[in-house]
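Q:
My hope is that you can spare some time for a protein that puzzles me. I hope you can help me see how the letters and the tokens relate. Thank you; the sequence and its tokens follow:
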Amino acid sequence: MGAIEQFHTAPGTLDLGWGHPHPDALPLDAWADATADALRRHGASALDYGRAVGPEPLIDWIGGRSDEVFVTAGASHALELIASVFGRGGPALVDTPTYHYALRTLADHGLRLIAAPAHDPAAMLELIRRHRPTLLYLVPTFGNPTGTSLPGPQRIALIEAARRGGVTIVEDDTYRDLSYDGVPAPPSLYSLDASDVVIRISSLAKTVAPGLRLGWITASPDRITALTRRGYVDSGGGVNHTTALAMASFATSGGYSTHLDSLRARYAGQRDALAAALRLHLPTASFDVPEGGWFLWVRLPGADELTKPATAHGVAFLPGDTFFLDRKPDRPIRLSFSRYGPEDLAEAARRLASAHRAMPRGR
């Protein structure tokens, strides 16, 4: 069989650089049942052209008003659409650090990116006044790469700063449902926004399967209308219609809720396994254990020189500079605990510690 996956790494390497799901976390049988149910329930309509905004059964499950939702082919597609329709060139603010592929997607549209710390609304407001950006992008809940969430008061202040500056906030809410230890995720920026400055991106890539290429945008009706007027949307009859109907069947059957409970337990266990192994094997590392998401943001002396020794010891990660617009020394590294089980994660930590000890003295 030919290669069909994005994931690739050197043989024998435990690669914690990839934010990909554990293969056993993918609901193969349940998804097959949901697809079959959607085809039985909707017949030929499930394989026909769909509505521009997406099928009603999925939008009903998502909640919110039907004129405030647009179904997309995942979060990356959502950001691509938002940048092309609402970016309008010029400057755009991005949280720092932030999701690295978002930086590329926004830059693809000629936007001039400016680092802006979302946790400091006063500084954000000053940057808005200085640069007059069109967009502000951030992952405020269980963020990539840090795993942290923006506190409630700062969420309110950020929305107010954007309102005063006439900026559209793009809230990437991909990790919301991956909350652990019974700790609920904080309210979304979109739910707190009374002035229509927030566009929210959601995705099922982390909670169901990335191969579905399924997500959605939640925004004010005028913005949703602007998306539906795109030529390719109008000509194609919506985006990912058949998969969206299968997801509606999966969700309304109770399958999603059951799957999510299992998923949270799995990833919480994997998070804890990696954190415990790092404490044991690499005590010079420091990190906060996130309440959700897929990542540990690890501060480690000599991290700038660790990539090659780590590769030689059969472990890989993403260096911190990946998530910033500039390059500076001594940034943390991102370790993903999503792809591997507890035993492999413990071994990855042991290899990382061996690589760190093998670095030249003085680091």
